[in-house]
Structure formats: structure tokens, C-alpha cells
Design brief:
The chain is built from 16 helices and no strands. The chain is mostly helical and about 475 residues long.
């Protein structure tokens, strides 16, 4: 028995983010996060693949792409709040405070239940307005897609909340399993509802939400059976004052940041749908940019993995009072993020046409999609580095700063530039992609400046030297 306990202790020490080696465990944690985010983008992208390949109406592709952009915006808001849960729970786990972790989980359940209701009402009521504002070529089909997906936001919210809990305790494998199963279910239902039942846009929307529901049910079953460093007790399922405040203080700025940053890309989507002076090309440009939406979602899986990994690593080591590990982990991740950025940028420049053809068979749409990606390569080059640094700030508790720099990048740089380009008669998707990246570079510069200011002030609560 003693030998068995010693073996378990060794395994626990090996897999911990607060002791032992740093780079290996970081990569082990990040790989499932990357795969889960990639698969999450995949089961959303499968909708566009099936519509693009099996439905002849080009407007159906733009409806799914445009509607998907709105749903992605909503999802990023949810994920911002989820990071608040992950960071708060991570600190309690690092400090080995089981009751604090339990109260965090109870507060999270209440917060996400309220959030799901609010977002569902907004989507059901506002779907027609969102479709018109986005200049969707087919407002009716886009509205239908948004309303069906909006009706399933309770599952989207629940999935992200549960995944945030598992990541907070350092388990990134189970969220990967959940999303993997959802992906398989979504592919099967897409093929059935679109090819066999001929439901078109409605079919892919129903498939996406059904797959998310399956994932949530599975995760709840595993959550109930797995031994965890917190308890799910009815008496703690309430707005526990300290934990609720901590989650909201960390999560709301991140949700606002993600909303503002991605809202700027929604503006780009709206501009792209009516880009240039030739109306005969609008439907092809819109369909091409719809493809870009899905492709960039895949590409962002890697930067998001850096963000979430660094958030959890930093939060747990703050809780465990391990400042030297935070510093070493940051150095390792900087080099890894630079390599990741180079790989993503190369894919955009050299593989745009090839990867765009996966989503549509229309040659003009492929051409426009590849054109945007060549410009977007400038953004992809530094995305991993920016989000990794933001993850570091999240774990340290500087989420308000994350919101401010996101607001500056989106509203003071990216959106003004895009609006200027939109008034140019000869504007192209390459210009949209390239000059839109200026907002990302502005954010990175601000983050680097803040990092050195933060260190000079020698903050006693979150000292990392």
C-alpha cells in the first residue's frame, strides 16, 4: 500500500504545474488545449464545409459564415468569463484550499446559469438586426441560423464553464475528449441533415447545437464520477461573495476584451460583405471571407492554447507562491510562441488557396479567401506571442489591463483603419487583412511596455523576480 501511495505521489508531482520540470509539463498541458480548441473550431467549420460542398446556393455559405461570426463573438464572451473561473480556481488549487475551490465552483454554476439565459434572449430577439447589420447577402437564412444556434447557448455556456473548471485544476485532457466526441457527432448530423434531409442552413445549425448538448451531458457524467480537488455541494451553489467577486473581477474584463477584439473582426466581416465597387463580386467576396472566418478560427487554436496554458500556469504558481517558476515558464513560452507565430504566418502566405479549397468549391471564393490570408499573415506572426503574454497577465490578476489594451487595439487602431479602407473603391481583402493587423501590433507594444513597468514597480502581491 505504501509503495502504491508513493507511486501516486510521484505521478502527481510529475504532472503538477507548481513543482518539478517546467517546459515539459507546460507542453503536455498545452497540447490537449490546442487540440480541443482546434476540434471546437472544426465542428463549427464542418457546417461551412458541408454547406459549401453540398448546397449550390452561395448565399447559404455566407449565411453560415456570417452567422458563425456572431456566434463566435458570443462564444468568446463566454470564454472570457470562463478564464475568470480558471484563474480563480487555479489559485485555490495552488494554495491547496479545498473549501475555497468548492465555493468557486458553486459561484461559477450560478454565474453561468444567469449568463446563459441573458445571451439566449439577446440572440432570439436580436437575430434579424444582427443579420442586417452584418450586410448578410441573405438576411432570412442568416437569421434562421442565428436563432437556432441561439436556442442552444445553454449548452455552449455549460460546456465552456465545465472545461474552465477542469483546466483550473490542471486537467486539459478531459475537455479534449468532450470536444472530440462533439466533433464526431456534429459531422454525422451535418451529413444526415444536409445531404439526406435537405435542411440546408437549418440542418447545420441543429447539428452544431445537438453536438454541444451531447458534450455537456458527457462532461456532467464524468464530473459526477471523477475524484476532484473540490466538492459539488448544493449548499455552496450560490453567489458566494468572495469567490463570485473574484470570478467577476477576473472574468468581466476578459469577456469585455474578447468581445471588443472580436467585435472589430465582426466589423471587418460587415465591410468585407460589401467590399469594392463591383456589386457582382460581393457574394463571392462574402463567401470567401466566410471561409476565412473558419480558417482563422483554426489558426487561433494555437494562440488560444498559449493564452490558456500561461493563465493556468501563472495562476497556480501565484497560489503556490512560486515566483521563480513563473519567470522561467515565461521565458520558455516566449521562445515557443515565436516559433508558433512563424509557422502560422508561413501557412497563411504559402497555403492559402489549398486550405481555402477545403471549405468551398467556388474558384472565385477561393481566390478571395487566399488573398485575405496573405495579408492576415502579418497578424498571425505575433498572435501566439501576444496571447501568451496576455495569459501571463491574466494569471497575475491584471485582467483590467487586458481589457484596456484590447479596447485600444480594436477601437483606436483596427476599426478606424478598416473603416478608412472600406471607403476606398479599389479596396481588397489583402488590405483588410494586412492593415487590420496594426491593431494586434499596437496591443503587443502596449503589453510589452506594461510588462516592464509592472516589474519596475516591484508589486508585492504578484512579485515575479
Amino acid at each position: 500500500m505504501t509503495k502504491k501511495l508513493m507511486t501516486q505521489a510521484k505521478i502527481k508531482q510529475k504532472s503538477s504545474l507548481t513543482q518539478g520540470k517546467i517546459f515539459g509539463p507546460l507542453m503536455k498541458f498545452m497540447l490537449p488545449v490546442f487540440c480541443a480548441t482546434f476540434l471546437q473550431a472544426m465542428y463549427a467549420a464542418v457546417d461551412l464545409v458541408v454547406i459549401g460542398q453540398f448546397v449550390e446556393d452561395v448565399n447559404a455559405s455566407s449565411a453560415v459564415g456570417t452567422g458563425g461570426m456572431i456566434m463566435t463573438l458570443i462564444t468568446y464572451v463566454i470564454q472570457g468569463l470562463t478564464t475568470g473561473i480558471t484563474v480563480t480556481l487555479g489559485r485555490y488549487i495552488g494554495a491547496k484550499d479545498r473549501e475555497g475551490a468548492t465555493r468557486t465552483v458553486g459561484s461559477a454554476i450560478c454565474i453561468f446559469a444567469v449568463l446563459a439565459v441573458i445571451l439566449t434572449v439577446i440572440m432570439e430577439v436580436g437575430a434579424p438586426f444582427f443579420a442586417q447589420w452584418m450586410n448578410a447577402p441573405d438576411v432570412e437564412q442568416t437569421t434562421l441560423y442565428l436563432r437556432i444556434c441561439g436556442g442552444g447557448l445553454i449548452f455552449v455556456t455549460a460546456y465552456n464553464g465545465i472545461s474552465g473548471l477542469f483546466k483550473g485544476i490542471g486537467n486539459s485532457n478531459l475537455p479534449l475528449v468532450f470536444v472530440g466526441i462533439a466533433c464526431v457527432v456534429n459531422i454525422g448530423l451535418d451529413l444526415l441533415l444536409v445531404i439526406v434531409a435537405k435542411l440546408g442552413v437549418a440542418g447545420v445549425a441543429v447539428a452544431t447545437i445537438s453536438a454541444q448538448a451531447v458534450s455537456v451531458v458527457l462532461s456532467l457524467i464524468i464530473l459526477a464520477r471523477k475524484k476532484l480537488p473540490f466538492d459539488v455541494k448544493f449548499k455552496f451553489i450560490r453567489f458566494n461573495k468572495g469567490q463570485t467577486k473574484s470570478i467577476l473581477l477576473a472574468g468581466i474584463p476578459l469577456a469585455c476584451r474578447d468581445f471588443l477584439t472580436n467585435f472589430s473582426f465582426v466589423v471587418i466581416n460587415s465591410v468585407a460583405n460589401k467590399l469594392g465597387g463591383d456589386p457582382t463580386q460581393w457574394e463571392f467576396i462574402a463567401a470567401g471571407y466566410a471561409v476565412d472566418n473558419k480558417l482563422t478560427a483554426f489558426m487561433m487554436a494555437l494562440p488560444v492554447a498559449f493564452l490558456q496554458t500561461m493563465s493556468v500556469f501563472t495562476a497556480q504558481n501565484v497560489g503556490a507562491k512560486q515566483p521563480k517558476r513563473i519567470k522561467k515558464g515565461l521565458i520558455y513560452m516566449i521562445f515557443a510562441a515565436i516559433v508558433g507565430g512563424i509557422l502560422l504566418a508561413s501557412l497563411c502566405v504559402f497555403g492559402g488557396s489549398a486550405i481555402s479549397s477545403i471549405f468551398t468549391s467556388n474558384e472565385k471564393s477561393i481566390e478571395y479567401a487566399a488573398l485575405y490570408l496573405k495579408g492576415y499573415a502579418a497578424d498571425a506572426l505575433i498572435a501566439c506571442l501576444l496571447l501568451m503574454i496576455m495569459g501571463y497577465f491574466n494569471g497575475q490578476g491584471h485582467t483590467t489591463f487586458s481589457m484596456v489594451q484590447g479596447l485600444i487595439g480594436a477601437f483606436c487602431v483596427r476599426i478606424p483603419i478598416i473603416l478608412i479602407i472600406s471607403n476606398m473603391a479599389d479596396a481588397t481583402l489583402f488590405q483588410i487583412g494586412f492593415f487590420g493587423a496594426f491593431g494586434t501590433y499596437a496591443q503587443l507594444i502596449i503589453c510589452i511596455c506594461f510588462f516592464f513597468i509592472f516589474r519596475k514597480k516591484d508589486n508585492k502581491k504578484f512579485q515575479v523576480d
